[in-house]
Design a protein that fits this description.
By secondary structure, this protein is mainly α. It is built from seven helices and two strands; from the N terminus they run ααββααααα. The N terminus is likely disordered.
Amino acid sequence: MLISAILKGSIDDIHKICTRLGADLHHGESTMTQHCSNQIGQFVRDRRKASGFNQRELGELAGVGRRFVSELEQAKPTVRMNSVNKVLAVFGKTLGIVDASKDDTE
């Protein structure tokens, strides 16, 4: 089910599954999920601007709409993971599991 959520689900889906598995994702007032969403959104915005693309152009390159790019950059928590990967692929990146830093897990 976790793999299905990663491939087809939203960031909220993964958070719900991890919570059911007993993982405590809360970090103060925010969640690690939102922290990751913010990082991804900022990465995409920075790389898009550095590459000279507007949101429409990046969407066309990635095969997603301009609205999706906007929502991704704004860290909307319900974006679909497969669409996130389409956008990240433009920059040679993909989502994956990485070890959390100590600051993120305390």
